[in-house]
From TrEMBL:
DNA-binding region: 124-220
Protein name according to UniProt: Response regulator
Chain ranges of the Response regulatory domain: 2-116
Keyword Phosphoprotein: yes
Domain of life: Bacteria
Modification 4-aspartylphosphate, positions: 51
Length: 226
């Protein structure tokens, strides 16, 4: 899952970048509001973590412009000012959650996972398709009761397909949601990850189905092959 982190405190940004990357997210980091507004015009993210006190363009204006473009990406606001008035203002402007500094990294990661899950219409941590289950808290996939061994990239692809809830997603959209700005990703690379996942799912009753012109979806299969 690809996240945009907007934080002008370089030490904090580096700490968050490291923690979120270790948690399995692809993270693009911007350090001022102008750059954040620019990438939000051109890139697709699963979530935005947005500081309010930013140079060039403050977080309020970044949020206002984002929602004015009718972009529904979840936004988690970070701020050193945790007043009730600020929280109400942020939520009224279209923010989805609010975290006051200082905060615990474990709580931040939990809120990020919950916001992404809810943005795909899932209220619960545990998701399932046939014999394939995913625990959003532990971030573990199990197939027929056995934990799946996945690389970080395979995990990200399968997680996104699971969150789609049976809806197809194109290779290009998958690539955009998986690879950060500083990474080289392509539709062809995505085919490789999908191929590897199909092999790992082959002994179960779930597969990755290709729909011509639409992309991939995760679905139950009759014979255990996708």
């Amino acid at each position: 899952m690809r996240i945009l982190l907007v934080e002008d405190n370089l030490a904090l940004a580096e700490s968050l970048l490291k923690a979120l990357t270790q948690a399995g997210f692809a993270v693009d980091a911007m350090h001022d509001g102008q750059d954040a507004d620019h990438v939000l015009h051109t890139q697709d993210y699963a979530l935005v973590i947005l500081d309010l006190a930013l140079p060039r363009l403050d977080g309020w204006e970044v949020l206002r412009r984002l929602r004015a473009r009718r972009k529904s990406v979840p936004v988690l606001i970070l701020t050193a000012h945790g007043s009730v008035e600020d929280r109400v203002r942020g939520l009224d402007m279209g923010a989805d959650d609010y975290l006051s500094k200082p905060f615990d990294l474990v709580e931040l990661e939990a809120r990020v996972r919950a916001l992404i899950r809810r943005s795909h219409g899932h209220d619960h941590n545990l998701l399932a398709v046939g014999g394939l289950s995913y625990d959003g808290g532990s971030r573990v996939f199990t197939l027929a009761g056995q934990a799946l061994k996945l690389t970080p990239r395979e995990h990200a692809v399968l997680e996104l397909l699971m969150l789609q809830g049976g809806k197809a997603i194109s290779k290009d959209a998958l690539s955009e949601r998986i690879f950060g700005l500083d990474e080289s990703g392509s539709a062809e690379a995505m085919e490789i990850y999908v191929h590897r996942l199909r092999k790992k799912l082959a002994h179960g009753d779930v597969g990755i189905v290709t729909l011509r012109g639409l992309g991939y979806l995760l679905a139950r299969t009759d014979g255990g092959h996708g």
